[in-house]
Amino acid sequence: MAAMKVRETRPTNGQDHERLSPCVCRTLRMVSRAVTQLYHNVLRPSGLRVTQVSILATIARLGEATLRQLEYIEEKQIRVDHIAA
């Protein structure tokens, strides 16, 4: 049996990010959508959306949140949702 060549893998940074294959990016998007769909399916009975769980998890981590913090969290989540769409 022929020996397989092992490619060195390392995190990309700076100029290296341009070397990513469009196939890798497409696969990453597909996997991300699949995971999001899995979360949607699991959360559906509760009536919560993935974005709401993210906000609730942030509040749980903070212990408590002021209205100003809640507003910031919500605005940040809206920006993330917009980018992901």
Q: What's this, in brief?
A:
The protein has helices at residues 22-43, 50-62, 67-84. It has 85 residues and is an all-alpha fold.
Instruction: Name the overall outline.
Output: flat
The low-confidence parts are none
SSE order, one letter for each helix or strand? HHH
Helix share, percent: 55-70%
The largest β sheet comes out as: none
Structural class of the helix and strand makeup?
A: mainly alpha
How many β strands by DSSP?
Answer: 0
The total domain count is 1
Q: Classify the oligomer.
A: single chain
Show the helix and strand layout.
Elements: H1 22-43, H2 50-62, H3 67-84
Helix pairs in contact: 2-3
Report on this structure.
The protein is 62% helix and 0% strand. The chain is an all-alpha fold and 85 residues long. It has one domain. Helix 2 runs antiparallel to helix 3. The longest helix is centred in the middle third of the chain and has 22 residues. The termini are far apart. The model has no long low-confidence stretch (mean pLDDT 75).
